[in-house]
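ARCHIVE CARD
CATEGORY: sequence design from structure
SOURCE FIELD: tokenized fold
FIELD CONTENT:
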């Protein structure tokens, strides 16, 4: 499948100079959505994944069906203030400030094999924070999976040599 044909690039969103990769066109095509989930799941089938950790919010769209296919549990990473039980929080730097993600403190057991899933890898800050959070909770990050990777933003550099899998790769701006 030509994945880039299934995605839409919206120029100057959310601000001038940005080419936003819109996944809603892929999600709206049930065949493309199914094939994307399958392509993201396939490399993990024989790896004994215990939990799929997905990053709010678009990571949920891919993480949930992947967890079901892998027979794994699902752990949502949320923005601050969204989880009701005891949490762990990890901060990360943004272009203009700091943000954070949270997970339930009891979401992982020591040594569980985890794959982290999100829709897009850009600068790597959120994904790196997710990996730190998983490790603080006792999990082992087996791989990080993304539908889209904006390779020209060098997000892999923040992920400390972790295994990164992506379905669609943009080597230059879209």
């Amino acid at each position: 499948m030509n994945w880039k044909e299934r995605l839409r690039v919206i120029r100057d969103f959310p601000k001038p100079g940005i080419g936003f990769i819109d996944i809603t066109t892929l999600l709206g095509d049930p065949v493309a959505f199914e094939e994307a989930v399958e392509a993201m799941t396939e490399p993990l089938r024989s790896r004994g994944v215990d939990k799929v950790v997905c990053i709010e919010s678009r990571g949920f769209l891919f993480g949930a069906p992947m967890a079901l296919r892998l027979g794994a549990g699902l752990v949502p990473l949320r923005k601050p203030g969204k989880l009701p039980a005891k949490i762990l929080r990890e901060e990360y730097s943004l272009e203009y400030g700091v943000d954070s993600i949270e997970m339930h403190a009891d979401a992982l057991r020591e040594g569980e094999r985890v794959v982290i899933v999100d829709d897009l890898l850009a600068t790597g800050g959120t994904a790196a924070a997710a990996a730190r959070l998983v490790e603080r909770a006792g999990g082992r990050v087996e791989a990080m999976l993304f539908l889209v990777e904006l390779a020209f933003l060098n997000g892999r550099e923040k992920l400390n040599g972790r295994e990164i899998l992506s379905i669609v790769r943009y080597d230059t701006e879209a």
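CARD ANNOTATION: The longest strand covers residues 140-150. Residues 39 and 167 are 7 Å apart (CA to CA).
SHELF: design records, drawer C
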